[in-house]
Amino acid sequence: MNRRRSKQIAFHDTPNGFQGTRIFPDNRWVRLSKIVPWDLVDEIYARNFEDRTNGNVAIDSRIAFGALIIKEELCLSDEETVCMICENPHCQYFLGLSEFTDAAPFDSSKMVAFRRRFPLEAVAQINEAILRAQSEEDEAPRDRDDDTDNHGTLILDATCAPADVHYPTDASVLNDARLLSERLIDELHDPSEGRPKPRTYRKKARKSYLLLARSKRPGYRLIRHTIRAQLQFIHRNLGHIERLSERHPLTAKQERELAVVMQVHDQQREMYDLRKRQVPNRIVSISQPHVRPIVRGKRSARVEFGAKVAMSLEDGYARIEKLSWDAFNESQTLQDSCERYRERHGYY
Questions:
Q1: Please, which residues bridge with residue 313 across strands?
Q2: Predicted local confidence at residue 10, as pLDDT
Q3: Which end of the chain is more exposed for a tag (fewer CB within 10 A), N or C?
Q4: Which residues pair with 91 in a beta bridge?
């Protein structure tokens, strides 16, 4: 159930609510509170609770979205974000609280729900509303019919937002897949049935991988031998999982994890048999199977792992033109970005 947010108190009223605490009007959180379109935030937030009339009252929309801004602005974890809000009166003012308190306004686990209720499209809509309000203050929009001249500067570029994954190698990805398959076997095996637990040879598999991981300059033969061994261990584990799943149906999470293990096994088997280094939609992280390698061509890092982002810069404001986990050519977004610039201003 959702409840409409309360209006932000005026700045001259804050000394009554924040007794003993000085709120400075030039503080960045106070200035930012005047820019964010909180009514639009509340409207987008309320869409998540349509046709819901029962249940606990949801956290205020301003607190939810404001906490996400604080987290991203200060590069904090969910737990540290809650601590910052408890300690900083300006952050509490930014969230629209009526008085300063050292009690947490919500649990850090709620941040997961906040991110789900403000998807990328909603954040882009709020960002456009902020930029539109700023541009209207700077200058009135021009009409292309009155003046056909082109004005302004639009800078376009693409970059990679690195994901938090360790540098992948074929052997390390296979080792992670093997560990995941062993965990699935442990979860599916029921000791009360009186059946022996399937043999996974996990000690031997770990010893084989560590022999490569601890080698400073592993040779080609050692790498091939380790990959072949890990493929055999995973293939055996997949057979055990198939037999165990006949007696114990897999949950939705286990099915997703099993699909990742099988895809990693098939990709690595194809590259091993054909002696290839590339395969379509190659998985480089078991925990984040959507991450793809992005070729950047830099001297220090030829390949980066994360989402590729096409950005546009206009009058100091940055916009995300396209975000994809798969690599794409920046020329695909060039024309669309220029057309969106014309829609905003009426000229190129």
A1: 155, 318
A2: 54
A3: N
A4: none
Q: Residue 58 CB: number of other CB atoms within 10 A?
A: 19
Q: Where are the alpha helices (DSSP H) in the chain?
A: 14-17, 28-33, 38-46, 61-74, 78-87, 89-94, 110-117, 120-138, 170-188, 202-213, 220-247, 252-274, 331-345
d(C-alpha 320, C-alpha 312), whole Å:
7
248 vs 254: CA distance, rounded Å: 11
DSSP symbols for 258-274: HHHHHHHHHHHHHHHHH
Global confidence as pTM: 0.73
Mean pLDDT to the nearest integer, 306-327: 89
Residue 195 dihedral angles phi and psi, to the nearest 5°: -90, 145
Around Cβ 38, how many Cβ atoms within 10 Å?
20
Of the candidate ranges 56-60, 136-140, 239-243, 338-342, the one whose mean pLDDT is the lowest: 136-140
Residues in the chain, total: 348
Mean pLDDT of the chain: 87
